[in-house]
Each structure stands twice: as structure tokens, then as C-alpha cells.
Structure prediction request, 178 residues.
Amino acid sequence: MLQNNKIRVYEIIGTIFIIFLGSALHFTYEISGKLPFVGAFSAVNESVWEHLKLAFFPSLVWMLIECLPLKKQANNFFTAKMVGTYLMVIIIPIVFYSYTAFSGESIFAIDISTFMIAVIIGQILSYKLLTHQQLNQNLNKIAVAAIIVLALAFITFTFYPPNIEIFRDTGTGKYGIP
Prediction:
């Protein structure tokens, strides 16, 4: 039980960390003078895809921070982190495209709330898997590969985005780095 409390504390701190770092990453590309390296993990435009990076990369950083203190105490570490992170990245566009289909426009307060709720849900699911019985260890290997694949997709599509709606800057109508 003490172990679960430690994991719970890490996941709560992680939720706050991800929300604050994700919010900051919305501005770091502009602040950096539009450095391509910074654009690889920060939002470079107002597309939905670029905003997903605001949940993914802080989650990745938090995973690396909590890996050493929790990996041996928690079950299914990489599986839990991958599932939680992927869930965040899935919830955001589903909610965004659902409500904008009805409203016809993006509403800032809903977008911010969606981001925060997605992070909270992802972290709760992560906690549940971290404290769940041990799953097949091969799932952790698959999870690491899935995290790497998504990280590479975010970086690649920042510089070479397909002409698909999720990659279109809602302000300019352009794709990728402005």
C-alpha cells in the first residue's frame, strides 16, 4: 500500500508537471527565435498535430524523470506510460473535432480544458496500470517501441507534414514550420 501511495504521488506531480511544461511549450518555439531544434518538440503553429506535442513531450520527460525511482517498484512501467500518453494524444483531437463540428470554431477555454482533462485521464490510467498486476514483460518492449515511433512521428511531421487537416495551421491554413 505504501508503494501505491508513492506511485500516486509521482503521478499527481507528473500531472501538474505535464500541464505546466505543455503550456510552456506552446510558446518556446517563438521565444527561441524559431530555432528548428526547439520546434521539434514545441508547437510551431496552431495545428491540432502541433498541439499534441504539448502533451506528448512533457509526458516523455516525466517518464524519464520517474523511471529510476519507480521502474522497479511499479508494475508495467513502460506499458503504463505509453498507454497513458497515447490516450492523451487520442483524446485531444477527438474532443476538438467533435465540438468544432457543432460550434464551427475553436473555443480557447475548451481547448485548454481538453488538454488538462486529457492529461489527467492519461495519468489516472497510467497509475492504474502501474499498480495493476504484472502484465507480460514483452508489452513493455512493445511500449518502448511505440513511444519511440510516436516521438519520431512528431519530429518528422513537424518538418515534413502531410497535407491532411490535422496538420493544417488553423490560423494561416499552411502546414509545418511557418
